[in-house]
Amino acid sequence: MRSSSSIRTHRTATTLAVLLAGALVLTACSSSDNHDKENDGTKGGTGSAPGSTVTLPRLNGAHLEVAAVWTGPEQANFKKVLAEFEKRTGASVTFVPAQDPIINFLGSKIAGGQPPDVAMLPQPGAIKQAVQHNWAKPLGPDALKELQKNYSQGWQDIGKVGGKQYGVYYKAANKSLVWYNAKVFENANAKEPKTWKDLLATAQAVYDSGVTPFSVAGADGWTLTDWFENVYLSQAGPQKYDQLAQHRIKWTDPSVKQALTTLAQIWGKKEYLAGGQSGALQTEFPASVTQTFTGGDQPKSAMVYEADFVQVNIGETKAKVGTDAKVFPFPAVGSTAPVVTGGDAAVVLKDSKAAQALVTFLASPDAATIQAKLGGYLSPNRNVPVSAYPNAVQQKIAKALIASGDDFRFDMSDQAPQAFGGTPGKGEWQDLEDFLKNPTDVAGTQARLEKDAAAAYGSGS
């Protein structure tokens, strides 16, 4: 899917940035209690009524397969949601671990005559490809009704292709957050930065205190695309962001040069990266988080950039979110702070009563509330009680997402064809890994990005 004009204005990005800045205050304010009541169904508001549940058919004997790339705690928590579906319907559900890019994985399964019933697709571009291949099936009336009841129009729109609804965004992500080791900041007398200039000053203060400032998960190219998108959105602005996302301007555009040059102010300083550039390129995302929050006040790094789901990995350490592990919004590089979102959509591949029932369940607040309580998860479903989220940080992030309505920008690489924006070792992922390896090669990086983008957008793959 490509950008919807109804959700693309400079004002909307600014509004959500302000909301998120307030949302990341780590101590709950007194007004939050009343807001929680409005959203948890104990008052009027938008919350679902206490005890209400989505109506599901009995599916005794039915067996379903659900494919997703989720691993570790994320997979384990989702399986608990599937277990509730089994309990309510009598169906049995098997989770099928998929590999990135999931479109290639699904292609192999379908070619072998064994497609899963439902797939969780992490990119609008992947949904479009699934429709183009005639793999995806439109949502049935029950799923549509549940989706329309619980989701803003913007979240509905990004699951559409050709005007038909194919995806239910079960999971969302706020991708404009920087998490930090609170003890390291305290020892360095470092402040939470508001601007890019402030971020560089904070990094220097941390470095001077004897701790490496940043952990960068360079082994996972998707984290590098997220870094770029935040810098680019804030610096170049929403209009340019949308143009680049749709490849209506080239990656050789001066605005891309400016963003890469800005990124190089951090990526180009070996002493600012845990393990230097070579170490960063060998660091996978989970390790980038855990090495920031283990080792007391002498960890391998002080800060790690990534989305709200970082909390799942923090949970694998002894650090506590809100005290040991704190967070600030990605600093403003231009006039306003960036707000980038992502998500995973449930898409039906085998159009059966059972598959449609599962997607209906995933569109309901019932399913999302189960996973919200387990932590490390954010739902765009506006009828999930805010009180379901397990800590003040997550509750405030959830409030900000729902309060934003349709006012967000979706992850740029996720909007691209998977060959460019979603494949390990190819396209943007590889090009930015190469740039991390040699941050002085701005022009060469731009040329490679444009070559790969032109090939992928031209083929639609």
TrEMBL record:
The keyword Transmembrane helix does not apply. PROSITE patterns: PROKAR_LIPOPROTEIN (PS51257). Residues 31-56 are annotated as: Disordered. Keywords: Signal, Transport. It comes from the Bacteria. Residues 1-28 form the signal peptide. Pfam families: SBP_bac_8. Coiled coil: none annotated. The keyword Signal applies. Belongs to the bacterial solute-binding protein 1 family. This is Extracellular solute-binding protein. It comes from Streptomyces broussonetiae. The lineage of its organism: Bacteria, Bacillati, Actinomycetota, Actinomycetes, Kitasatosporales.
